[in-house]
């Protein structure tokens, strides 16, 4: 009987201990949930073996779930730049200054240049600099006109017609020593070539030599001269390298086509145009102009028995 009493007492003691431990754990859990506090290592209480096994299994499951969830990349925090020290070393003095005064001192929120002080600065300095700029402009213009800088540029670039051919032939006739100075002379009188022509005619007493010099630089004349130069070069290479059979054939073709062109012009003028003239008509005064041109052509023709000045010398 005594043994049974002891075993019953022991079992009742164990059950009372387990009940008290469960009540303490439940009270701690309610306390944590109500105050939203996390348990620390100091708050943990020893649990009985049965509850300790259950808590260990729960912790194992939580650790496995925590390991299964991937960790998100952490954002790097920007390092704050330390404030620049002031010139006088009074860092606390800037903190006391209000933001409005700081903005006024730095020129506003944008930090741009204010226009009103800039305009005043330009007005103050412009009145002092303007006379110097005017003097420099006059000096530069006089130097450029004296050294014929603009004339040299225009002549070198070939802007506008120039009487270069007439001047070269004129100096070749009257003063060959100045033949090499023709580019400098033309650059000096660039834009005022009539003045140069008058001086040359008065100096050498040779009038009428430069009449119609503008036609020398006409586009049609320049194109014709370029074509003749190209034809001469091609003809020279043809005569050097082409076989004799081809040369003879080309010469015969040239003569035949030239003869046909002459006959065609004569046929048009003598036979075809007189028939078409009544239908198309001619401008008024054309007959008088034709007679005038014919008289002028007769006067220009020189006859062998005409008197010439060269016969006297």
Automatic annotation (TrEMBL):
It comes from the Eukaryota. Keywords: Membrane, Transmembrane, Transmembrane helix. Residues 9-29, 50-66 have a biased composition (Low complexity). Residues 1-109, 285-313 are annotated as: Disordered. The chain crosses the membrane at residues 118-137. Residues 74-83 have a biased composition (Basic residues). This is Uncharacterized protein. It comes from Corethron hystrix.
């Amino acid at each position: 009987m005594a043994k049974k009493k002891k075993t019953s007492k022991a079992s009742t003691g164990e059950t009372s201990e387990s009940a008290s431990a469960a009540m303490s754990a439940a009270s701690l859990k309610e306390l944590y949930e109500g105050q939203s506090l996390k348990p620390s290592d100091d708050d943990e209480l020893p649990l009985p073996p049965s509850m300790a096994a259950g808590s260990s299994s729960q912790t194992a499951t939580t650790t496995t779930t925590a390991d299964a969830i991937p960790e998100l990349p952490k954002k790097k925090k920007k390092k704050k730049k330390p404030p620049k020290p002031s010139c006088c070393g009074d860092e606390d003095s800037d903190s006391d200054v209000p933001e409005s005064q700081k903005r006024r001192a730095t020129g506003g929120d944008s930090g741009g240049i204010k226009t009103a002080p800039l305009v005043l600065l330009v007005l103050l300095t412009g009145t002092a600099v303007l006379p110097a700029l005017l003097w420099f402009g006059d000096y530069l213009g006089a130097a450029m006109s004296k050294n014929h800088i603009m004339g040299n540029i225009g002549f070198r670039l070939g802007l506008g017609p120039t009487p270069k051919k007439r001047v070269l032939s004129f100096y070749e006739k009257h003063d060959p020593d100045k033949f090499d100075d023709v580019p400098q002379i033309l650059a000096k009188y660039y834009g005022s070539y009539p003045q140069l022509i008058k001086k040359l005619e008065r100096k050498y007493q040779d009038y009428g030599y430069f009449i119609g010099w503008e036609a020398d630089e006409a586009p049609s004349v320049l194109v014709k001269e370029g074509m003749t130069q190209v034809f001469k070069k091609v003809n020279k290479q043809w005569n050097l390298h082409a076989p004799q059979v081809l040369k003879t054939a080309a010469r015969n073709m040239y003569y035949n086509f030239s003869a046909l062109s002459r006959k065609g012009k004569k046929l048009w003028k003598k036979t075809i145009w007189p028939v078409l003239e009544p239908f198309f008509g001619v401008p008024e005064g054309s007959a008088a102009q034709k007679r005038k041109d014919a008289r002028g052509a007769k006067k220009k023709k020189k006859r062998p028995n005409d008197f010439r000045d060269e016969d006297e010398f």
